[in-house]
Amino acid sequence: PRGSLPEFFLAVGEQDVLRQYITPSTRALAEALRAQGAAVQLVEAPGGHDAWFWAAQLPTLLARVSGRAAA
Questions:
Q1: Residue 42 in 3-state DSSP?
Q2: How far apart are CA 56 and CA 3, in angstroms?
Q3: Of 1-5, 8-12, 20-24, 62-66, where does mean pLDDT reach its minimum?
Q4: Cβ atoms < 10 Å from Cβ of 54
Q5: What pLDDT, on a 0 to 100 scale, did the predictor assign at position 64?
Q6: Can you spell out the DSSP letters for 4-29?
Q7: Is-contact 41 9, C-beta < 8 A?
Q8: Cα–Cα distance between 14 and 39 in angstroms, integer?
Q9: With left for phi above 0 and alpha for psi between -120 and 50, is residue 23 left, alpha or beta?
Q10: Is 37 left (phi over 0), alpha (psi -120 to 50) or beta?
Q11: Residue 66 reports pLDDT greater than 90
């Protein structure tokens, strides 16, 4: 049931040096979680696997956790 699983926030950088492996795996994880009834937000955004990318994703993640829309 949907209510028994936590919500998931997954983010992938479009310029990640390992994107050929990470992006398909992350998409597959999102679909598997959705198939089990989990709410999943998958973000594919510009950036790599670095602090700049994660800092850019933080407002969306924190808004989701707090139940507010990201600014």
A1: strand
A2: 29
A3: 1-5
A4: 13
A5: 82
A6: GS--EEEEEETT-TTHHHHHHHHHHH
A7: yes
A8: 22
A9: alpha
A10: left
A11: no
More confident residue, 34 or 4: 34
Contact 33, 41 (CB under 8 A): no
Residue 1 is predicted with a pLDDT of: 52
Site of tokens 């597959």? 28
Q: How many residues does the chain have?
A: 71
Structure tokens at 11: 């983010």
Within 8 A by CB and 6+ apart from 30, the residues are 8, 10, 40, 42
Q: Which amino acid would we find at residue 26?
A: T
DSSP 3-state of 52: helix
Residue 40 tokens read as: 């999943």
